């Protein structure tokens, strides 16, 4: 999670709900560039990974996800979450609505990679549509790729 936070801090936006019960990490992949900071983040990920195979799995996952994304300017919702004690109270809905309004003002499409199937319907309520499914049985994950052109 630290890697994701740092990436969005450097190359995106970090959103908190008004009550600090929800957070969204937004990445603008087009802003990423090869830099000392990015290299240090990857080294830190390597050093904090449980095993070298865990690091390899994470890097494989990141590389696979990047290949599935179209090569265009976009906003990528990397994470959005609500404190479990405060879920189902509309906090996440309010946060994603604010995030989408802000991104729409920048005239960017929004992309999302989802590994939790049970939230697919929730994102569809906000206009997201699936464009790809990636099943990687070797690494035990399935990702759903969603987009919203914010028309």
Automatic annotation (TrEMBL):
Organism: Mucilaginibacter gilvus
Listed name of the protein: N-acetyltransferase
Sections of the chain in a coiled coil: none
MF-aspect GO terms: acyltransferase activity, transferring groups other than amino-acyl groups
Key words of the record: Transferase
Transmembrane region(s): none
Domain N-acetyltransferase: 69-151
Recorded superkingdom: Bacteria
């Amino acid at each position: 999670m630290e890697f994701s936070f740092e990436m969005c801090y450097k190359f995106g936006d970090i959103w908190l709900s008004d009550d600090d019960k929800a957070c969204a990490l937004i990445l603008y992949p087009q802003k990423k560039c090869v830099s000392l900071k990015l290299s240090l983040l990857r080294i830190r990920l390597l050093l904090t990974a449980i095993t070298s195979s865990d690091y390899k799995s994470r890097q494989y996952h990141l590389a696979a996800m990047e290949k599935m994304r179209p090569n265009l300017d976009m906003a990528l919702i990397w994470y959005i979450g609500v404190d479990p004690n405060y879920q189902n109270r509309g906090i996440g809905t309010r946060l994603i609505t604010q995030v989408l309004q802000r991104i729409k003002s920048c005239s960017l499409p929004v992309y999302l990679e989802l590994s939790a199937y049970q939230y697919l319907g929730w994102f569809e309520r906000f206009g997201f549509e699936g464009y790809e499914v990636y099943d990687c049985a070797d690494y035990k994950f399935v990702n759903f790729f969603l987009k919203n052109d914010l028309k």
